[in-house]
UniProtKB/TrEMBL annotation:
One matching Pfam family: Malic_M
Active site: 95 (proton donor), 177 (proton acceptor)
Listed name of the protein: Malic enzyme
Binding site for a divalent metal cation: 248-249, 272
Species whose genome carries this gene: Coemansia thaxteri
Superkingdom as given in the UniProt entry: Eukaryota
Length: 599
């Protein structure tokens, strides 16, 4: 057979293998499969039914994770059909909380998840960074399809979820997260690239684990880290112009450092910092709108003053400054912080790190509060935000007091610490103690609460990053801004507030329902693109023309409002990837991707 013939047959085999039991008769004949495979020719729905039954037959979440990882390798189309049709059930199996469990033992299960030579992403060691171009070339060659990635999620495994330094085992996170980009916002799965920077680990458990698959060395110092990470980012930027880089689960200092270094040099963002801030800001804006007291009179008490609290507080201050035209110093004065030593003041007798000093009170005179209870009596807050990792810190007494203090309006209570075992209170507790008046958002997913007297079912708000990062990813990949600005993220937050439908608003929900994630992501991406064009950072002529010719009604020049036109939304929607609905459609799409000349 000629080379062209070989390549054609290889393509048919590849496409056929992925169609599985749905492979049509002609294809079976062309591949001489008579007698080699079961006779029944199925449709995609039947395949999906079988896959779902198999998934449900597994007894632990980790087994389900392993099954889904295998399915993703065998049949991408089926995997995403299953995921999209059972979104609420399957997301916790491919991402938090199950992915955490999988990462903890990744080195032990990895060879059973994927065939050894299958390229699931890039594992880049410090030594590899000296020949990074070869690594990238190897990646290109390993791809069955001649297309460049358009998004990468990159981690060094140093701060995986709340689990600490997992080294190379952190690879589960970029893989899982990119699956969510595809499911929630329609990024093409064959154009996603998970990367782990395998720069060592300081975790003794893994350094001593004979089955650990990563570099068995301690992590490098900051200088070496930034040099090596910089080499990787520059090489990616050069090899794949227009690639979006999402930083994920780096230790706080490196997360801030990398973002600072790269945010204006390439298209990148950090989900832990910007995505989280965006989603919590959106929930907070919705809450303030419903609280029944003027925004200027909000008094916000943070319990916990670590990395997350300072990031979130900064976003909220920006909101009061931008939206309500409150001068920055005045906006800052609306915030109080409690850490493990009590209310943070300039005269409590300790030296404060920079991120705490920014918000330290100096108007407290001789008053010092040593506990959250004392701080509540002193501040009389309208909003209580928990980012402390202290489980059950918002006791019944505290929640009841929040209710009493806010009889004129509705109290805002956001217990944001993750996972559930660290949450400051549950939705049920917050509802019961506030006479069901609380405006609530949590980090973890709590069950709905039925009010016993009325049987009304209330849905808790969850500050889930999944509302923001897929849309930021989609918007960036479509219009390719030179870099991503804070205002683009702010526009996404505003669009998230606006995306709630009438029913969700009537029920007082702070976020849209997760089942509508694809529609919501499309709207948020349209807002992102519109904002990016209005900032003059988009070079793609098509998007510049479409946005400028269809400016959204009601938008005011210079204002970041998260609005977009129907036309832009329509275009975004048509460009979102969906798994093929039928085998015929699948084959046409697969042939077009593998051999564009065959069309
Ligand atoms: P961190 O360790 O930097 O900060 C924790 C803060 O809580 C520190 O200021 C500490 O002094 C304070 N704290 C600890 N024990 C305390 C006590 N007994 N009383 C008063 N204050 C106490 O941690 P980080 O990164 O700020 O994260 C905090 C929590 O926020 C974590 O549980 C994390 O999962 C969660 N988080 C949730 C997000 C969401 O989207 N819901 C996003 C980011 C973080």
């Amino acid at each position: 057979m000629s080379e062209a013939g070989d390549s054609r047959r290889n393509s048919i085999e590849l496409i056929g293998a992925k169609a599985g039991t749905a492979m049509p008769a002609e294809m079976r004949q062309a591949l001489n499969l008579r007698g080699l495979v079961p006779t029944s020719i199925e449709n995609f729905s039947k395949q999906e039914l079988r896959a779902y039954q198999q998934l449900m037959s597994k007894s632990t979440n980790l087994e389900k994770y392993e099954f889904l990882a295998g399915l993703r390798c065998l049949n991408v189309n089926l995997f995403f059909r299953l995921l999209l049709n059972h979104f609420r059930d399957i997301v916790p199996l491919i991402y938090t909380p199950t992915v955490g469990e999988a990462c903890l033992s990744y080195s032990h299960i990895y060879p059973f998840l994927y065939p050894f030579r299958m390229s699931v992403g890039l594992f880049i060691t410090l030594d590899d960074t000296d020949c990074i171009d070869t690594v990238i070339e190897n990646y290109r060659r390993s791809m069955p399809e001649p297309i460049d990635p358009e998004i990468t999620v990159i981690t060094d495994g140093s701060r995986i979820l709340g689990l600490g330094d997992l080294g190379v085992n952190g690879m589960g996170i970029p893989i899982g997260k990119l699956q969510l980009y595809t499911a929630a916002a329609g990024l093409n799965p064959s154009r996603t690239l998970p990367i782990v920077l395998d720069f060592g680990t300081n975790n003794e458990r893994y350094l001593n684990d004979p089955l650990y698959l990563g570099t068995r060395e301690r992590r490098p110092d900051d200088k070496r880290f930034y040099e090596a990470a910089g080499r990787v980012i520059s090489a990616l930027h050069y090899a794949f112009p227009g690639l979006l880089i999402q930083f994920e689960d780096f230790s706080t200092e490196h997360a801030l450092g990398l973002l600072d270094q790269w945010r204006k040099r390439t298209m990148c963002f950090n989900d832990d910092i910007q995505g989280t801030g965006c989603v919590i800001l959106a929930g907070f804006i919705s809450a303030v709108e419903q609280a029944g007291i003027p925004p200027q009179t909000q008094r916000i008490l943070f319990f916990g003053a670590g990395a997350a609290a300072s990031g979130v507080a900064k976003q909220l201050v920006d909101y009061f400054v931008i939206e309500h035209k409150i001068p920055e110093q005045q906006a800052k004065a609306m915030f109080w912080f409690v850490d493990s030593r009590g209310l943070i003041t300039t005269n409590r007798g300790d030296t404060l790190p920079k991120h705490k000093d920014v918000f330290a009170r100096h108007d407290n005179g001789d008053t010092q509060c040593r506990s959250i209870e004392e701080a509540i009596e002193y501040v009389k807050p309208t909003a209580l935000i928990g980012l402390s990792t202290v489980h059950n810190a918002f006791t019944e007494k505290i929640l009841t007091r929040m209710s009493d203090l806010n009889q004129q309006g509705r109290p805002i209570v956001f217990p944001l610490s993750n996972p559930e075992t660290k949450a400051e209170c549950t939705f049920e507790e917050a509802m019961r103690c506030t006479g069901n008046r609380v405006l609530f958002a949590s980090g973890t997913a709590f069950p709905e609460y039925t009010i016993p007297e009325t049987c009304e079912v209330c849905v808790p708000g969850q500050g889930n990053n999944m509302f923001a990062f897929p849309a930021i990813g989609l918007g960036s990949v479509l219009c390719k801004p030179t870099y991503i600005t804070d205002s683009m993220i702010f526009a996404v937050a505003k669009a998230l507030v606006n995306s709630r439908n009438e029913e969700e608003k009537a029920c007082g929900e702070l976020y849209p329902r997760i089942e509508r994630i694809r529609d919501v992501s499309a709207e948020l991406a349209a807002a992102f693109v519109t904002q990016a064009v209005s900032e003059g950072l988009v070079k793609e002529k098509h998007w510049v023309d479409v946005v400028n010719a269809n400016m959204p009604e009601n938008s005011l020049p210079g204002r970041v409002d998260g609005l977009f036109s129907r036309r832009v939304l329509g275009e975004v929607k048509t460009l979102m990837w969906l798994p093929a609905a039928s085998v015929e459609q699948y084959i046409v799409e697969a042939i077009t991707t593998i051999n564009p000349d065959d069309t």
